[in-house]
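does this look right to u?? FE2/S2 (inorganic) cluster version
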Amino acid sequence: MSQTGSNKDVSEEHLPSARATEHDGTVEAAGNPFADPGLPPHEHRVQDIDERAAKRSERTVALLFTVSMLATVAFIASYVIFPIDKIIYVFPVGHVSALNFSLGLTLGVALFCIGAGAVHWARTLMSDVEVADERHPIEAEPEVKAKVMADFRQGAAESAIGRRKLIRNTMFGALAMVPLSGVVLLRDLGPLPEDKLRHTLWEKGKLLVNQNTNEPLRPEDVVVGSLTFAKPEGLEDDAHDFQSEIAKAALMIVRIQPEDIKDKRELDWSHEGIVAFSKICTHVGCPVSLYEQQTHHVLCPCHQSTFDLTDGARVIFGPAGHALPQLRIGVNKDGYLEALGDFTEPVGPSFWERG
Ligand code: FES
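got this back:
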């Protein structure tokens, strides 16, 4: 049977009663299955008629907010007391970090008690009289606005926030203390870097060591057309701080005919055309590693920033913000390449240059 078109396919008993009439915009209920049934009669709660029950509810809510405050204090205490590597056994979870367990437990209790207190307050003490409101146009008339404000004031009065000072004060206390948990955790962001990012392991007299062979480099080891990666003497591959130090100190070394070097400072800081630049891209810090022998351009594989090593490693293409820092080098009395100081500017992404 088709459902499209008209009512004629719908049986009579499923249609609204022809006897339903509209009066003052309200459909009268007589025989009308779609009529508004209205609100059920309001039933008073025990707290509405028994002040002792209301007091009990008030104390319960206050207790929950107080427990929340204590849990926040316990959170902060746990953070201070438990060492990060302490493991405890908790049934049925098993072995867990004491710090993580206590932080999670106390923060969970603090938040739960605020929520439970608010719910209990709303269910037992705030007004539960159901109110039906007619839909109205979006632009509110002045009288409507006045009514809203009056309703708001009435709601505030009925919530008893002014009268029930115990609840109000403990709630404000709990809400004010919970954010302290987040403030304490800021400590985990660690100490400020201070000027550590501005310095590397390079210093005057430190030898340039081939990163592949771990041998100190001599000028004759660096031939035109080759790209050599170097690290500072004394930085061992298995050192605990190897990654953090090499991330700042990594060097790439190339030899260019001195007459091909356009930048005067670059020439002054080189040794017989051997130049040493930071290997860390000034865009977001990838290792620059693709060398084009004829043009002496190096390319960062991450976002294709290209640097001209004959011209102070300035950026000739790509998103990098500034040239690769150059390390001033020379040769010591034993014939090895050595640094003549640290980099004179921060290596890596341009962000640090602004710090
Ligand atoms: S990190 Fe080198 S171009 Fe983006």
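Residues 281, 283-286, 300, 302-303, 305, 318-320 surround FE2/S2 (inorganic) cluster (CB under 6 Å). idk if thats expected tbh
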